[in-house]
Each structure stands twice: as C-alpha cells, then as structure tokens.
Amino acid sequence: MYDxxxxxxTNQETQEVFxxxxxxxxxxxxxxxxxxxxxxxxNFSNISIxxxxxxxxxxxxxxxxxxxxxxxxxxxxxxxxxxANKIKFELKDGMEVITFxxxxxxxxxxxxxxxxxxxxxKGVGALQLAFxxxxxxxxxxxxxxxxxxxxxxxxxxxxxxxTSPTGAxxxxxxxxxxxxxxxxxxxIYPVKVQGEGAAQEIAxxxxxLNTLTDIDVIIAGRGGGSLExxxxxxxxxxxxxxxxxxxxxxxxxxxxxxxxxxxLVADKxxxxxxxxxxxxxxxxxxxxxxxxxxxxxLLQSLxxxxxxxxxxxxxxxxxxxxxxxxxxxxxxxxxxxxxxxxLKLNITHALNTxxxxxxxxxGKLESLSPLNVLKxxxxxxxxxxxxxxxxxxxxxxxxxxxxxxxxxxxxISTILFIET
Length: 420
What we know:
The protein has helices at about 10-20, 30-45, 80-85, 125-140, 170-180, 200-210, 235-245, 260-265, 275-280, 285-315, 320-325, 325-365, 370-375; strands at about 45-55, 65-70, 75-80, 95-105, 110-120, 160-165, 185-190, 215-220, 250-255, 270, 380-385, 400-405, 410-415. It is of the alpha/beta class. The protein has a five-stranded mixed beta barrel with strand order 1-2-3-5-4. It has a five-stranded parallel sheet with strand order 7-6-8-9-10, with helices on both faces. A three-stranded antiparallel sheet has the order 11-12-13, with no helix packed on it. β12 and β13 (about 410-415) form a beta hairpin. It is elongated. The model is unreliable at about 1-10 (pLDDT under 50).
C-alpha cells in the first residue's frame, strides 16, 4: 500500500540516461544500481506500509533492522538511531505496524529496503502501547509493590514540590496548603513538565531533593492534558527516580481519569494537584479543635483521679490504724518480749542438759586416767630415749636406760640383767 506514484516519464534526466545506455553495450553494476535507487527513491518516497514485524535486530550502533512481511512477501527495513530514539514503544517480532518512510537501495548489497521515519502500532496508539509495555516491565520488577511504599508524614516540616512554576498545578497546591496549614515550609523545584527533556528534568529534581536532609515529603505533578502532554510522567527515568527516592513522594498528575506510571510507582497518588495539597498536610483548625477537646478530656480525667485519690487519702487518715498508729507497734513489741523470754528459757535448759552430759563424760575419763592407776600402787615404765611404754622385756638390752613413773615422782634405771 502506498501513495499515488507520479508517471516515470516525468523524470526527464532518468529517461535520458536510459535512452543513452540503450545504444551502448552495457551498464556497470554500480551504475544500474544507482539508477534503480534513484528511480525507487523518486517514485516511492513518503509512503505508508502495513506489515508484520519480524527479525528485529538492535546492534550497538543504535539503529534498528527488521523485516516487514505479509502472507506472500517481505521487505527489509531500517530505523536509524535518530528516529529510533523517538519511538516510545518497543518494536517486537509479531507486532503489526503501519510504517512511514521511503524505499531505497542499499548499494553495497544491491538490496532494496524501506527507511522508516515513523512507525505506529496498528489498532492502538503508539503512546498507549508504550505505556502498556513499560507498565508490564516495571510491574514484573516490583516497582509497584505496596510493600515498598513509604508512609506520608502526618505533619511535614518542609515540603518539596517538583512542577512547572508557571502552571495552574502549583497555584492549586500552594492555595490548598496555605489554607489548611499556613506555616509549613515549601521548597519549589521548577522543571519542564512536557516536551523534550521534561522527563530528565523531573528525574533530576527528585534525585537532587533527596540530597537535602530537611525535606519530609515531595509532591511531583502537573495539571491535566492529553496523553502526549502528560507523557513525561510515563517515562522510565521518572519512574525509577521515584522508586529510588528515600523521601516519600505524592504523585499529582492530571485529573482523576489520568493514570500515569508515576502514579503507580509513587508512595501516594493524588487524583489532582489540589488533592495533593489536601493529602500532604492536615487541616490546622481541625487539629487545634481536636487538641482542645483532648486537653479538656485530659483535665477532666486528671480532676477525677485527684478526687479519687483525695477520697482514698481521707479514708486512710480516718482509719483505726492512722488514729492509733502505735497500737500495732506495741502489740508486736509485746510478742517480741514473749519470744525473747521463751528463747532464754530454752537456752538455759539446753545448757544444763549439755553440762550434765559433759560431767558424766568427765567422770568416765577420770576413772580411766593413768594417774588414778598410779595412785593405786601401779607404776608405768617407758624407754628413756623415746618415752614409749614397755609392756614386756622383749626388745630390751643390758645397759638400756628406762624410766619408771610412780603416783608421785619417777626414777631412771639402768638394766643390769634381764629375766625372761
């Protein structure tokens, strides 16, 4: 399928070359290839072609090579880097697209091909397809997970706002915040919110705000518009900057029906910029009213507890124990005296019993004492050198010295002879 083609005989120069060559013997390969290229480029420029993509190749050069095909034929095509960088969606095998461009010949191979200047998916807009592709990709990576979302602080001390300084969105946000909580500090980071370079500015602003230590929450957004107008908030670079932010982010893009990738990644989505102002701070008057009520309830509670404590103190003061504070002490002192007397009697009895036992043991020891034996006329004989007692003459020798102890005194003798 292509646009109307002008008659070939209108290219006078080409016709003259062909007429001249008809009188000669041959064309060189380069010459015929160049002539075919000129003819093709003249007759098949700025055409649109419907086909299915296959054999997509993306070398490091940044160009994209692919094949367009239908049931019966195929056509080689190329998307040069400057065009490829502007395509929002990803070209994949099996995708049916409408391409816009011109047919030419790649002379080194003698192969005709389509140079694509624009491409759109059939049946769905290019931006809508790009949105769906990026959404599926980021969702698989977990960028939308609820577990990653950070809570918005109840009363932030300082709010960072990333938006256009001249749009209606910033006015709405500032008006709402000023009405709800007038003395909160706000830092506005001005950025482009649509057009070339807008996504990079938004991502850079979020990254730089994260280097500040006093920002408690960030609002990133803009007013309503078409899908093209809001597209900066559907770029992957913005989504990743929001996901990597340590500061909680509220996304406020467009109207309620507008859902962007930034909304899905952000910690909180505001349906409009005005709602972002409502979400980021509470109403100060309601807080003061609530504090007033809490203060009243606290005073009532404390008054009630003081009253109960006072009543309890009065009861204790009027109790028998407080009126006769020494009665219980005296009773315990009396019991202590009884215990002391009882203890003294028990100790005396125990001492007497033990004394009697000790006397009995002393009597027995006295009866067994060697001194008593000596008193009865017996003597004790021991060796002089070691004072060991002698019970027999065995082991004694003549001239050994012995000691004989009497009841009173002792004598030392020398053995003259031994009788056995």
